Every structure is written in C-alpha cells, then in structure tokens.
Amino acid sequence: MGESIPLETLRAFARTIHAEARNYGFQQIDFVRLINEMLDLTADEPPQTSSGESPSELAPGTWRVDRFPLESERLEIRKANAETDGALLESWLTDRYGRHFLLSCATAQQMDLETLFSRPKNDLGIVQMSDGQPIGAVAYLDIDQHQKRAELRKLIGEPFARGKGFAEEATRLWISYGRDVLGLQKVYVSTLQTHLRNIQLNESIGFRVEGLLQREILINGIRYDVLRMGLSFEDGLPGATSPNGY
Q1: Which of 3.40.630.30, 3.40.50.1220, 3.30.470.20, 3.90.1640.10 is the CATH number of 58-235?
Q2: DSSP 8-state symbol, 91
Q3: N or C: which end of the chain has fewer CB within 10 A?
C-alpha cells in the first residue's frame, strides 16, 4: 500500500466535490447516496498492491541546470524573451488551462505580460522539446533573496503536450535550477482548489498542503478556495538529481 493521502488534501478534495455538487443541486440525501455509491465502487475494486516503484519518481539521470538551456531527458528550458516570446505566451493564456497562469491567488490580481517580463524579481523560462519546439512556460515570481523563497508557476500551453508527464518533468527541472542556481530554500504554489490534477501533480513532486484560504478568490462572480502548498528543500525532492547532487 502507498503512503496515506494527507488530511489537508482529503479536505481539499471533499470541499471541491461538495461545492460542485451543491452547484448541481444536491440535497443532503443526495450526498448520502453519493457516498454510498462511492463506497460500493471502492468495494468492487481489486486490492491495490505496491509494485515497488512509484510512478511519480522520474529517472532523471544527469540533468543540467548550471546554464541555459536547462536540460532533462526530454525537455529543455530556455530563458524567456519578451520580444520573441510575448505573442507565444499570449496565445497560451487564452484557453482554460492557461488563463490562471498570471492570476495571483495571493493578491487576486491578474498580472499582465509586460509586468511578468519586466519585474526584476521574476524569472521566466520557456519549456521546449529537445528539437526546440516550445510547449509551455515556468516561472518564479517575487523571488526573495533574503528569505530564499519564491512562488512557482507552470503551464503546458500546447494541447498535444498535455497528459504526457511534461509538466512534472519541467517542474522538477525548474525546481532543481531554483535550488542549485538561485539558492532558494523554499518554493510555494497557490492553486485554486478546483484544480485537482494540479494539486495531485504538486504532491507527486513533494509539495505539501500548508493551508486553505476559504472563498479567497472571486472569478466571474464565483468565489473559490485557494490551496497554499509548499516545498522545503530540507524535505528533499523525490526522484530528482542534478550535477550538484540534488
């Protein structure tokens, strides 16, 4: 059996399911019926056994993070350029996967691309395939050299590249760069509670839920909970290595 899911994560999933069901029109008896149906589905599943290998642990080998482009097995991350990459980023921010890349869950403010590129405490990279085809972006926002921490953002903008593990690989590579090159000791993310796949991805990398801000963000007239997740490098990063031993 694998490691138990943290209680804060269970609460996040429960609140999301509850909110969506309420919006659909669930009454109290419907929640009871839903729980019973879920228990029946679980009872019908064969018991899960550990294969001895965690699917979240990549086999990174030797990743290069000491100069750009950063390199992993399948990906590269190069420095973003406002003049050449502005239109590309703007195209990625138009769909439902990319529209929250510039939304600060901490301040509820939508950053514009000019600010993203020009603010000296931001560090932005373009994720691309080994053949040079751009597929997404990663960023550190509000890098605090005194506290040695920063907020991490990630986005796979090209639809064909989603669901193939590129987001996890790019995030691990970017985190290795943050620790080994920028000297960060902690990275944090703030995600809308409804982004369940994003929460799961963050946990697979090593992030842990640090807090839940209830009804924190108002988007299109609907309030959302915000989940704060953090990764301290004292806790380690499962499955990641670099030329500096990380």
Answers
A1: 3.40.630.30
A2: H
A3: N
